[in-house]
Amino acid sequence: MEQRLSARDMSFDPTPESDEEEAYSPAMYLPASNADPAVEVENEEWEEDSTERLSMGLEKLDERSRSILTRRWMTDDKATLHELAMNTESPPSACARSSRTPSTS
Known about the structure:
Elements: H1 2-6, H2 26-29, H3 37-60, H4 63-73, H5 81-87, H6 92-100
């Protein structure tokens, strides 16, 4: 018991004068916080599920709506409302009016 109380504690991090290749400390072999396999599996499954749901939702839309969503939100070069209106039947003024007019149900 006396020996344990008088023993010196080991440093958690290597001393500054020690060479990194030669010194091993607990900080060098502790697991990374993002290395949890359960979290990785959960993220992959969530990504798969959300992609599948998005695809199913897009399949239910008509061609015009699907085109608008794809060009407006799902591409890197996003189309403006004016560009979308030029490619659809409705003129830009009708698009602007419909976005300002509250829907009546």
